From TrEMBL:
Record-level GO cellular component terms: cytoplasm
Domain Aldehyde dehydrogenase intervals: 19-451
Lineage: Eukaryota, Fungi, Fungi incertae sedis, Zoopagomycota, Kickxellomycotina
Pfam families, per the entry: Aldedh
InterPro entries per record: Ald_DH/histidinol_DH, Ald_DH_C, Ald_DH_CS_CYS, Ald_DH_CS_GLU, Ald_DH_N, Aldehyde_DH_dom, Aldehyde_DH_NAD(P)
SUPFAM superfamilies the record matches: ALDH-like
Organism: Linderina pennispora
Similarity comment: family membership: Belongs to the aldehyde dehydrogenase family.
GO terms assigned for molecular function: aldehyde dehydrogenase (NAD+) activity
Catalytic residues, chain numbering: 229, 264
Keyword Oxidoreductase: yes
Domain of life: Eukaryota
Keyword field: Oxidoreductase
CDD domains given in the database record: ALDH_F3-13-14_CALDH-like
Entry protein name: Aldehyde dehydrogenase
Length: 476
């Protein structure tokens, strides 16, 4: 197999349902046989993956572009480069992360004076990684790095909605990783449901809350660990004391228009203080025009909506909104190409149809506020978002952080935060459970096994008196 066989040259073939069991069992068997025990083997696998990605980065980006016209530069910046960086981090730090944490309890609890205590980082076993379509390389490869580094065998389930990338990932795995330790199961809901019937040692899911709940239920049925990386409506708040509105508008629009708004940490909507609102809107318009011209349809740097169903969902929302859809671009939505231009919607009410679910669209609802109390009341009345972006003085941004909850909080920036390797990433409440990236990934995919080694000889006499009745009563 070759990763050159990506865009349409090789069709995505779903794994037959009756072959899934065999695939899972073979990963479990190789784990039991100790395939991943050796740290140098794990490093060699990471090295090989690194080589494969480096050697085929253009083909990988082309596969994503074939799926939904995602600009290859976006794939390079936000998917391939971060994955390469993450492997480098692991190769540098894995020995440190894998080292047992040693404890000396003797001074606080003299009964442990003669014992040695440590927490070992052991693999969990065989883990399942299910990924979505929107960053179809990054969101399957980043967790894979952590899972392999921690010594697990892995079953990968790419998203069927990015079929060219799913094939490219399958080929990359076949060409550069040991088939005894990683396998790819291809398919959609039926194949994933079949996978969820198996008792994995950890379930790692990135995607929607709806499917996340199914994965969570399956994990609980098996009493296995679960990480859910979900989405939600991540707000940006722009207060009147922001030092400079220009970068604020640029950073918000960047997060909204990258991958045409189909990013889990995109700014979903913006709340802007009344005194800076008009200037902010003008700056957003300027950004769109400068970045994509007034005809973004022709721009090579602007992605398409993943499929017709989502295109129609977004168009229905735009028909239903009671806000003011601003005329920013000269071209119109195009169903045949699944194109929706960058769209600003002003004067959006709290109960607008655009404010119900995660938009996942290049559409920015703008809500005007007069006091931060209004902002807090609204944000806190909703599910806790994956990210919250606050623009203002440090006093204002801290005040907002102290009075809200979210997976990540960022002052005066937006999704730039997800570039930070080794910075635990994840949601809270409806936006997810658990953390990954760098050491957090290693920990997520490890069993932190507490090991006590006690001496048989010379037990402190005090312990034996509480082991064997008759008790003499508590000593003073
Ligand atoms: P999705 O939940 O529809 O699909 C994710 C995976 O689940 C796919 O592999 C798919 O094949 C599988 N699946 C779909 N329906 C299923 C079913 N009924 N039963 C079992 N499996 C099923 O999500 P999506 O549309 O691919 O991705 C978009 C969502 O993912 C958004 O909500 C976004 O915010 C979220 N997301 C989160 C992060 C994060 O890091 N937190 C990153 C990217 C995307």
């Amino acid at each position: 197999a070759s990763v050159y066989a990506y865009a349409g040259e090789r069709q995505l073939t779903y794994t037959p349902l009756d072959a899934i069991s065999t695939a899972v069992e073979s990963m479990k068997a190789s784990f039991s046989q100790g395939a991943m025990r050796d740290m140098s083997f794990r490093k060699q696998q990471l090295q090989s993956l690194l080589q494969g990605i480096r050697g085929h980065r253009h083909q990988l980006a082309a596969a994503v572009a074939a799926d939904f016209s995602k600009p290859p530069t976006e794939s390079e910046f936000y998917e391939i480069a971060p994955v390469i960086f993450e492997i480098g981090q692991f190769l540098k730090d894995i020995d440190k992360w894998a080292r047992p944490d040693k404890y000396r309890l003797g001074s606080e609890q003299p009964v442990f004076l003669m014992s040695s205590m440590e927490v070992r980082k052991e693999p969990l076993g065989t883990v399942l990684i299910i990924s979505p379509w929107n960053y179809p390389l990054r969101l399957i490869l980043l967790p894979l790095i952590g899972a392999l580094a921690a010594g697990n065998t892995v079953v990968l389930k790419p998203s069927e909605l990015a079929p060219c990338t799913a094939v490219a990932v399958e080929d990359l795995v076949a060409q550069f990783l040991d088939p005894n330790v990683v396998c790819v199961v291809q398919g959609a809901a039926a194949e994933t449901t079949e996978l969820l019937r198996h008792r994995f040692d950890h379930f790692f899911f990135t995607g929607s809350g709806t499917v996340g709940r199914l994965v969570g239920k399956a994990a609980m049925e098996h009493l296995a660990g679960v990480t859910l990386e979900l989405g939600g409506k991540s707000p940006a708040i722009v207060h009147h004391d922001v030092a400079d509105l220009g970068p604020a508008a640029m950073r918000i629009m960047w997060s909204k228009l990258t991958t045409a708004g189909q990013t889990c940490v995109a700014t979903d909507y913006v709340m802007v203080h009344r005194v800076v609102k008009d200037r902010f809107v003008q700056l957003c318009k300027n950004f769109i025009e400068n970045a994509y011209t007034r005809t973004p349809h022709k721009s090579p740097d602007y992605a398409r909506i993943i499929n017709r169903r989502h295109w129609q969902r977004i168009m229905d929302l735009l028909s239903a909104t009671t806000g003011t859809v601003l005329q920013v671009c000269d071209d119109r939505p195009d169903q045949s190409d699944r194109y929706i231009p960058p769209t600003l919607v002003d004067n959006v009410a709290f109960d607008d149809p655009l404010m119900v679910d995660e938009l996942f669209a290049p559409v920015l609802p703008i809500i005007t506020y007069d006091s931060l109390d209004e902002v807090l009341q609204f944000v806190n009345s909703r599910d806790q978002p994956l990210a919250l972006y606050a623009f203002g003085s440090s006093k204002t941004t801290e005040f907002i952080f102290t009075n809200t909850r979210s997976g990540t909080a960022v002052a005066n920036e937006t999704m730039f935060v997800s570039a930070a390797s080794n910075f635990p990433f994840g949601g809270v409440g409806a936006s997810g459970i658990g953390r990954y990236m760098g050491k957090a990934s290693f920990d997520t995919f490890s069993n932190h096994r507490t090991v006590l080694q006690a001496p048989l000889a010379l037990p402190p006499p005090a312990i034996d008196s509480v082991r064997s009745p008759p008790f003499t009563g508590p000593e003073n």
